[in-house]
Amino acid sequence: MVSSLSRRTYLCLLLAAGAVALLRGATPKAALDSNPEGLAPDARLTGTAAPPATDMGWWYRTPAAKFWEGTPIATGRFGAMLYGRVRDEIIPFNDETLWTGQPYDAVNPKALPSLPEIRRLLAEERFGEAADLAANLLSHPVPVVQTYQAMGRLHLQFDGHEAVEDYRRELDLDAAIARVEYRIGPARFQREAFASYPDQVVVIRLTCSQPGQLTFNTRLSSLHTSAVSRIEGTDTVCLAGGVSEPNPEIPSRMRWEARVRVIPEGGAMRTFTDPQHGAIVRVERADAVTLVLAGATNYRNWRDISADPATRSADYLAGAARRPYPDLRKRHLDDYQPLFRACQLDLGTTDAAREDTTTRLERLRRGGVDPKFTSQYFQYGRYLLIADSRPGTMAFNNHNIWLDDLKGRWRGRWTLNINIQECYWPAESTGLQSTVASLHDFIADLAASGARTARGNYGARGWTAHHGTDVWMNTAMTDRVFHGMAPTMGIWLVQHLWEHYLHDPNPDTLRRIYPLLKGAAEFGLDLLVEDPGTKWLVTSPSGSPENGFALINGRARLHDGRPRPADAVRNSICNGAAMDTQLLRDVFRQVITAATALGVDEDLRRELAAALPRLPPDQVRSDGQLMEWLKPYQEFDPRHRHVSHLYAAYPGSQITRRGTPELAEAVRKVLLAKGDNRGWSAAWKINLYARLGDAASCHRITRMMETDISIHPAPEDSDRVPSMEGNQAIQGYTAGIVEMLLQSHVPIAGAEPAFELELLPALPAAWAAGSIRGLRARGGVGVDLAWREGKLDTGTLRTRRDGPCRIRSSTPLAVQRDGRPVTTRTVAPDVVEFTAEANAVYTLSRR
After folding, report:
1. What are the distances in angstroms from CA 700 to CA 371, 397, 772?
2. How far is residue 42 CA from its own chain's centroid?
3. 552 contacts 423 by C-beta, under 8 angstroms
4. What are the phi and psi torsion angles at 422 (to 5°)?
């Protein structure tokens, strides 16, 4: 074991090394090593496998050589990664709730007494002193979140599989099934694995084309030194333990248990205990075998860890194991496929799509054309969101559910200053609205904890959350002031609740989300102070997430077009960062709208309405860029990856290219100055360029992202598989493609919540023909589109409400319902409108 300090030092050094390599335009060597984990040699591979039957997925001719080359599956709560090794398969598995620590209160007793002085220093622009004192706002008793912990590994060790032919492994995205196939002589072996949401277990099926060929050992292991295995009955291995990482400030009280049941068909089975590897179930000469893997912890919720992991895991296992394999598989597919198939993208295909995925990646990097890859990567973002965000589970976080170490990336935290938001950007628009249930529950827990932080650290009403949290819902500022000063991230999170309402407007949804919106707005009100110079109401303290401006002797340096001095230091804490103001504008208006519709909180409505016109306007710097701070401070890093002040353009809609053209141009200038970056930052920029109608820039970045590794490469990353991106870029990519094909963020004045539908607003020339089915627009409209020669050909609109339906399209359109023409009226160039009826279907065609 290594100490917490050495872990943090290691992570800092690792990230620094990666950053240096990125600046040099290279991938860190650790990300490309062929066997960085020192795995034992596997079977010898010969022959050439044919492509799999499905064309919606990834496939490879070799096993994974390191963790993130594996194939990820998950139940929303319980996840696994399959290496696909032949002789000694390794399947790491995790429960999303296994963390260091225990329930704790992160309020810092020094915070509230320090707040008036922090605000005074900020008003006087003594930023260096304010930053020093703001350390008193950091999480207590430690300034960091707790750390996610991997649970265990399932090992399958096969006899006689020393050399195989025609090896292939795949991840079938359409079925959410991972497979491995190979041949030994005339015998063809197959493994099939899936993670069942209905049964909350991982199921593995082993078969062979010839009888009596399956002989292997099954065991469990863990990185936790406390883990102990045992045999239960005649067919089950159990592994139980606690959390091994020492944490004296917040000692861990987490416990966990995993178990695997082996169900053979034919042959013989026995159990034994090995001095080195512990409890083992051995199968000999079976025809087929089903393995059911379950795991659980003692976590009930962020305040309660009284559950019994043994009982939980036993119940999961017993419930699934009593069902025959065909029933388990059918229950999984019946649950998963309606979600996955709800949205389908077709950009065409070429012969390149028949190659294995690694070969396709290499060809794309050399400039090859492979439109099918774009459709698959679009769907990979949706697949991962379904896998890790289901009702009754925690919110999406691929920092942890797919992990095989005890340190995690960024401690396995939920990062709240862009990352978790980006994960959910495609949820409403691509038919995955049910995945938002886990985010709603997550926000509700954050709000309960954040109310304590709002009172204790800020003396404020409502609730707050900062830039990162853990399973204990730490809502205080963490890490350090520069990165952690982001007290409005809860306000950003509730925008997803508002989006959920806009995509399906109904009073029940509004009543359900209103308390969380109200609490976020109340905190925003109490965070405001009057700026002495402008008399605007500004947030204090404030910060633009993870970006900073230059200080000389503790004072801000203004932008003058010249490079910053070498002795400048970076600073984030300030008053009135632009993103804060943009977020407050949105949430204040939303609460006024919601409270009016629900007939509640008249006094609060008046308070919000009075504050709104006193918020600072969006401002443009002398060089034409949208300003990130209250004054034109000089950025410490002008090409920094965060673009928080562009929130108003996307995912917000305060800045639009037709409604506010001057500000939209200022957004464009920020994007040009910063460059494309990589990872999640690049994904955000696809969406921003789409809002600007810049199809060429959108396409350039999508091409780059399809073969990228990560904005923060780490040893577990790989250039041989499509990146899951350790900072959650892939869902942003998926959302960006939606924005290129359909936008619905401009409201129809006087008809809210009805919105203008803009069709193919940023269609690149490379996608001259294609189709997408199953999109959802704001206002509750379902949308299918097909295009050829770069122009809309046909479309379908499924309306859920009575009222105006407005369509913007550069292609003149005819509208029909049940084969009869619908009368439309032109309201602007390229814009027509008609009166829609609820639960009707309208077809669009070229006029």
Report:
1. 14, 27, 20
2. 33
3. no
4. -65, -35
- Sequence letter at residue 543: G
The DSSP secondary-structure symbol of 234 reads T
Report which residue type is found at 719: D
Residues 318, 235: contact at Cβ < 8 Å? no
DSSP of 60-88:
ESS--SSGGGSEEEE-SSEEEEE---SSE
Say which DSSP state 49 is in: P
End-to-end CA distance of the chain: 70
pLDDT, residue 11, reads: 32
Q: How high is the mean pLDDT of the chain? A: 93
Number of helices (H), then strands (E), belonging to the chain: the values are 18, 36
For 792, what's the count of Cα atoms within 13 Å in the CB-facing half-sphere? 27
pTM of structure = 0.95
Element spanning 815, H or E: strand 813-817
3-state secondary structure of 405: coil
* Tokens describing residue 20: 């240096």
Burial code (b: 16+ CB inside 10 Å, e: under 16) for 235-266 equals bbbbbbbbbbbeeeebebebbbbbbbbbbbee
d(Cα 793, Cα 785) in Å, to the nearest integer? 8
3-class secondary structure, 107: coil
What gap in Å lies between CA 157 and CA 180, rounded to an integer? 15
In tens, the pLDDT along 811-838 reads 999 999 999 999 999 999 999 999 999 9
Tokens standing for 648?
Answer: 């108003």
Cβ distance 744 to 808 under 8 Å? no
Q: What is the 3-state secondary structure (H, E, C) of 710-742?
A: CCCCCCCCCCCCCCCCCCCCHHHHHHHHHHHHE
| Cβ atoms of 796 and 821 closer than 8 Å | no
**Helix (H/G/I), strand (E/B), else coil: 218:** strand
R_g over Cα of the chain: 27
Please tell me the predicted confidence (pLDDT) of residue 727. Answer: 52
Q: How far lies 127's CA from each of 54, 97, 241, 476, in Å? A: 58, 39, 47, 21
What does DSSP say about strands 813-817 and 820-821: parallel, antiparallel, or unpaired?
antiparallel
- Residue 711 Cα distances to 420, 567, 730, 732, angstroms: 16, 27, 12, 14
Q: How far is 476 from 484, CA to CA, in rounded Å?
A: 9
**Alpha-carbon dihedral 412, 298, 384, 713, rounded to 10 degrees:** 20
- Give the pLDDT band (50/70/90) at residue 539: very high
What share of residues in the chain are helix, strand, coil (percent, to 5)? 35, 25, 40
Contacts of 446 (CB under 8 A, 6+ apart): 463, 465, 469, 473, 475, 490, 493
> Could you report the per-residue pLDDT of 416-474, keeping only the tens digit for each?
999 999 999 999 999 999 999 999 999 999 999 999 999 999 999 999 999 999 999 99
Q: What is the largest CA-CA distance in the chain?
A: 84
Judge whether 99 and 250 are in contact, CB under 8 Å.
no
Give the integer Cα–Cα distance in Å for 669 and 676. 12
Q: What is the C-alpha to C-alpha distance for residues 165 and 114, in angstroms, rounded to an integer?
A: 69
The DSSP code for 180 is: E
Looking at residue 238, its amino acid is C
Between strands 537-539 and 528-530, the pairing is antiparallel
**What SS3 state is found at 207?**
strand
Positive or negative: CA dihedral 736, 742, 748, 752 = negative
The set of residues, in sequence order, having a beta carbon less than 8 Å from that of 275 and lying 6+ positions away, is none
Distances in whole angstroms, Cα of residue 309 to Cα of each of 17, 200, 300, 340: 39, 14, 10, 31
Residues 491-520 pLDDT 10s: 999 999 999 999 999 999 999 999 999 999
Tell me the residue type at 60.
Y
